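#data-curation
PF: Archiving a pair of folding outputs for the training set. Convention for this channel: one message per protein, sequence first, structure tokens after, nothing in between. First:
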Amino acid sequence: MKKHQVTIIDIARALNLSKSTVSRVLTGHANVSLKTREAVLELAKKLDYQKNMLAISLISKKTNTIGIIVPEFSSSYFPQVIIAAQEVATQAGYNTVVSQSNETYETEVANTKVMLANQVDGIIVSITRETKNYDHLKIFERKGIPIVFFNRVCDEMKVPKVIVDDFEGAYNAVDYLIKNGRKRIAHLAGPVSLRISERRLDGYKSALKKNNIEIDEELIISYDLGLSKVKIYVNHLLNMENPPDAIFAVNDPTAIEAIQVIKKRGLKIPEDIAIIGFSNDYASALMAPSLTTVAQPIAEIGMTAAQLLIDQINRDVSDWKAVTKVLKTELIIREST
């Protein structure tokens, strides 16, 4: 049998009080006697009374809930962003509903439907590597529900975005490798569908050009971020007649996987080949050798995205601002270079 959820009516009947008196106590109104207040709060605690958020949302037209949709949980990046965003949301009085899309477009679409069904006041989103159609996200705009993108963003939608300077981060990483004597630098790039992949590739190429090193397309491999393929691509690079002396990876999981492959080949890092990642994943400092990487201000990304969303929620739709926050990266030098 389904357990009855305790309501204000139950508490009022038990204490022989009016519903309005009990409601005033439970919503913090001051014009109730101390004796009555204590009796209501004691019984509410004893009966495990919970506010009826559905009823409250019908009255206020708000659920005080925001949604967060991320593409995966396999790296530490997205969980760290979520933690930071939740901190800001909680302080502002919002609950959060979190979902991950497992890097598939279909799951991302399903996740947005769940968010709509739960009547969230707004969503924070980072898209999957497969996402090329954004109709499921544009629905939120049409319904007047604010949306903020971070990391992997949709350029088609004029909404707030939080990104890092991927170009500068990649440029600094490759420039550092060149200044340390590396001349044949390979790039394990992300899928061409993602803007971050494009910006990091542009930074890589720009650093080569600036240092008068010819771009060799044979050293650039774009892939779908499926780590099972890294072994194939790294072995392909190492088997070249003139193999690379360094690898710049689109992210840390790719770089970490590459390190494992290179070590199994009996090569020394960084003596034979240097490696740089991107994102400063937790595992990057624990590797042997530890991974040089481009660190992103992950907590700031999450906090900024949440603050932008809450700001939109509190504004009239006509006053929404499609700002883009571009945060700086930092090159963290470790043993792999």
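PF: Second:
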Amino acid sequence: MKLEPIDPDTAFELYIAEKETSVADATLAAHRSRLGFLLDWCEERNIENLNNLTGRKLQEFRLWRRNVGDLTKVSEKTQMDTLRVFIKWLESIDAVEQDLHKKVRSPDVTPEENSRDVMLEADDAEAILTYLKRYEHASLRHVTVTLLWHTMLRMGSVRALDIEDYDPEEQSLTLRHQPETDTPLKNKRQGERIIAVSNEVCLVLDDWIREKRPDVTDDYGREPLLSTNHGRVGKATIRTYCYQITRPCKYGQECPHGRDESDCEAAELNSSSKCPSSVSPHPFRRGAITHFLQSDVPETAVSDRANVTKDIIDQHYDQRSQKEKMEQRRRYLDKV
């Protein structure tokens, strides 16, 4: 195969032009941002023809990106996974050697690091919700994912909601600790509260209740908001929904791991958790908390809504880099 010379900026613009018709705006913006670092690196290294990229050069970029970005392992993995998709696309236009994308290395993340750092990125959440709105509107999976992301609630809290806990006029949800009927809240009575929900969330809930929710009660005679034909939705079902819908290929993205969906083990029924990109419910909560903090929502408001102390947010949830925090403080201080 003969490679066709192409400079980094031209390749980038062609790639973005193709993606504009196939991914959500937030995903496109994320790709622009992440690949912008590659353009900077190529300029620093005087790389004017991407034909010259090699596995060694890609590893040099990885180390450079890690050093200039104050990245967590998870953020570094996200960066490199996007790069892998871009390199695979370059192969399709004869810009780099075939299978070069397989040489893009990502950091290994231990289970302990996973539990501390893994989160659903905001652009991925938006792409997932866009997909669900278009193809599975007001389905149980759509409602479940919408609540997990927009409310920052724990899985057990989402499962605990009853029909009567939703007030469409006040646009609110009431959280109640009811251990005697199998729906405890983690913080017990201290976890009880009323939270506001947006028009977007209400539209999904209204359509679910009116058109698709099975009219059933649970084993205690309560009417669960999230119900199946057999009663209240189970935690295993919520967990399965999260693993299923966070596979990139499920919501219209290219596989960042170079897999073919036709023979990928994660594409098999109930095997979605085997996808390296799929996540359980808790990363929805961590990602949502970080997203609201990045959006300049006061930490006190996030703490009250998510029912978690500010110290715990700092220790376990807030994935902003020190530089991000500094820039947010600057925006406030510059107004003084």
